[in-house]
Amino acid sequence: LDLVMPPKKLDPKDFRFLERKGEQLAKRSGDVNGIDFLIDGCEDCHIIILDHVAQIFIDYCKRCTIVIGAVASSAFIRNCENCRIKVICGQLRTRDC
After folding, report:
1. DSSP code per residue over the chain
2. I want to staple 75 with a disulfide (CB 3.0 to 4.6 A). Which of 28, 46, 62, 89 is the partner?
C-alpha cells in the first residue's frame, strides 16, 4: 500500500522578515522555492536570501545590508534609508529611497 502524504501547508511567516533589529537573518537554498518574499521595517540587519524568489518587497528598512539571490520578476525597494542592497532581478523598482 503506497501512502501519499499531502503537500506541506505553507506558512506566510516563513516568507517575511518584519520589524527585526540588529540581527543576521538568512534563508537557505530550498527555504523559499520561488515564493514572494517581504522584508519590512528592519533596522541595522544583515539579510541574505540564498534561494530564488518570485518577487521581493523591501520596505521601510534602515541601515541594512541585504543580498538577494535570483528574483524571477520584480524587486520593489520602497522608503528605505542608508541600505546596501544587492539583487539579481528582471525589473528593479524603487521609490523614496
Report:
1. ----PPPPPPPGGGGEEES-BS-EEEE-TTSSTT--EEEES-BS-EEEE-S-BS-EEEES-BS-EEEEEEEEEEEEEES-BS-EEEEEEEEEEEE--
2. 89
Which region, left, alpha or beta, applies to residue 14 given φ > 0 means left and ψ of -120 to 50 means alpha?
Answer: alpha
Q: Model's pTM, two decimal places?
A: 0.90
Over residues 67-87, mean pLDDT: 97
- Region of residue 61 (left: phi > 0; alpha: psi -120 to 50; beta: else): beta
